[in-house]
Amino acid sequence: MYYKVRYGKKYIRSFPEEWLMYNIKGTGPNECANCEEYGCIDKIFIGYCKNCAEIVYYNKRGDGFDKNAEEDLLEGVIIQPNYLDVEKYNIINYLVFLLLEKIQHIIMPKMN
Ligand SMILES: [Zn+2]
Q: Which residues sit opposite 65 in a β-bridge?
């Protein structure tokens, strides 16, 4: 997945620089355990957790993830910030890649 590194963490490529600049203390993958847990796919920050999104940003940065980013995106039940529209195929490609990696040993067993 295309990403960028900011403050020692991986962020999805289109994550708004402005949001990084105006990150409210206690939110995001560096300062909130829920953001790190629920807002990341394979340690790449996709978006805020539901708590930060609702309580701190009043849903101005999306509805936030409450299960995990992968599941919430696939279910499509929550409103996501615009940058994720741009990243749709970036994310889908990566999820397919992760899935193939997981099942590779089943479909292509190692020869001895
Ligand atoms: Zn959070």
A: 49
**CA 94 – ligand 1 centroid, Å:** 23
Q: How far is the CA of 105 from the centre of ligand 1 (A)?
A: 35
Per-residue pLDDT tens digits for 71-106: 888 887 677 788 888 888 899 899 999 989 888 878
Q: Which residues of 1-17 are buried (b: 16+ CB within 10 A; e: fewer)?
A: bebeebeebbbbebbee
CA 27 to centroid of ligand 1, rounded, Å: 5
Token pair recorded at residue 70 = 């992968």
Distance 63 CA to ligand 1 centre (A): 11
In the block, tokens 């790449």 appear at 44
SS (H, E, C) the chain: CCEEEECCEEEECCCCHHHHHCCCCCCCCCCCHHHHHHCEECCEECCCEHHHHHHHCCCECECCECCCHHHHHHHCCCCCCCHHHHCHHHHHHHHHHHHHHHHHHHHCCCCC
